[in-house]
Amino acid sequence: MELKFISISDAIKQGEGKVAVRGWVSRERGSNEFKFLVLRDFSGLVQCVVKDKSLVGNLSLESVVEIKGIVKKAQVKAEFARKDVEVEVFELKILAKAEELPMQVNEKSVKAELPTRLDNRSLDIRKPRIRAIFRIQSAIINGFREFFYKKDFIEIQPPEIIATSTEGGTDLFPVDYFGRKAYLAQSPQLYKQMAAISLEKVFSTSPVWRAEKHDTSKHINEIRQMDIEVAFADDQEIMKYLGEAVQFIAEKVTKECKPEIEILGLDLKIPKTKYLTYNEAIALLNKHGFKLKRGDDFEPEAERKLCSLFPDTIIFTFEWPSEIKPFYIWPKNPEKGTSGGFDALYGGIEISSGGQRVHIPDILIKQLKNKKLNPEHFKWYVDAFRYGAPMHAGWSIGLERITQAMLKLDNIREGTLFPRDRRRLTP
Fold first, then answer.
1. Cβ of 385: how many Cβ atoms within 10 Å?
2. CATH of 8-96, one of 3.40.50.2000, 2.40.50.140, 3.20.20.100, 3.30.310.50
3. Is the pLDDT at 205 greater than 60, yes or no?
4. Which residue has the higher pLDDT, 427 or 108?
5. N or C: which end of the chain has fewer CB within 10 A?
């Protein structure tokens, strides 16, 4: 009977008996009598013992092979695979021989620097640590969707080509749209609002592009953004949604990604929540040596400090000054100059910004003018609120940013499959 190919983990679970497995040759060593190969697939690694060396030939690391053999109790303990079982090989076929590698995948010796790794990303993501990152990232975005589907939200697909700036800035990538000037979307902000005032509760996961010339460890120019927008909600209600969503995601990761968490050496906890007004946050930071005044944004050092004061916590700072928030953020208290906008910090960095939106056309026009923007360029957007628009609020989280925060990655590019920044367009 012809053996059916199964995953390495299923072969191990099967116990003793004949198996057929496929994967990459992760490691190779020899003795006088035998060849030992460590085979890797998506499910794990297993040591394979080749008694007939002629089966191996000129096999190279990262070559793709299929192996037929017998699962047995391990006679020789594997260094980097399961130590209790091994596969005694009786048939080996090379499916794709690997050429000389530009970098080592098993990193037994010298570890490659991040630029080299990103230049050879398809190799880099074969490493158990990098695979673990993207398995967890998959659980993060799945958890986001799962949470909001359970809350009866509708998933929407906002456009990725837009006619005008969303944030009011100039840092956009222009495109030629049949002879008309257009841009790659920097956010689904305006469109998710227009959806929410009719559909009430919406979310989206979409790529966005920002042409900012950053060279930092937490910025890239193409990200996957997770957004929500809710009608009949204010900033307080929407912050609660954010806290509960991140807690749900963290719990999902801790339950479903135990092997990956172990590989990364994480002590991942379900985060608590902490609420500070902007003024309270300023006062607290100044007590710890900062010299901030009203109207200042929080620099990375200040964000890290707040997170260190409240570890394993999502820290909400709200009632930000209107002058440093976008035009679409509700002027909560015009006399005091405070807005319905908030930021959320987690894992040492800002993971989200959001708030209550302006839903009254006259106030929206005034806000646009205050930000030196031409209301005529936003007429299609302003007009949408003239036909019975309820109050509404929302926020966004960058998938790569929350991956960086949750997994304590030094650089956001580690949690981005193929990063795009001002210096990198390939691979």
1. 21
2. 2.40.50.140
3. yes
4. 427
5. N
